[in-house]
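Possible regression after last week's pipeline update?

I re-ran a chain I had predicted before the update to compare outputs. Posting the input and the new output here so someone can diff against the archived version. Not blocking, just want to make sure nothing changed silently.
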Amino acid sequence: MTRKLKFRLLLGSVFGLLLSIIALYFFLYQSHRDIASENSAFETSVNELSQRFINNPDSSIATYANQTISIYGNVTALDLKQNSIILDDKLIALLTKEEIKKVKNGDLVKVKGRFIGYDELFEELRMDQCIVEQ
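New output (post-update):
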């Protein structure tokens, strides 16, 4: 190989490596979702959603996973250390410190957040990044 060809191959390899590093950086450090500003994909009650998961968990997980949903129910427990509330003994919702101050035990509330999963063993629904709408 000639010297000129070696230089072009080296320059192309460095350029390709640099592009790969930049693409990987932007893939790993994407901007975070702002759940509070998103519109809810679904609006339902805790009991209704729980019943859907009991009847057909696979279909429900595919439908609701990682979706922004609004859900309403009665506050049955507060955990100020974990910044979480439990609605109707079936949904665990993680709130911020400011949001948890808005609710009391026994309140009927509507929260909006990201649905993250369903625990079949305990029959619990889980949401995070929640805000209190009512």
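Follow-up from reviewer: compared with the archived run. The mean pLDDT is 92. Marking as no regression found.
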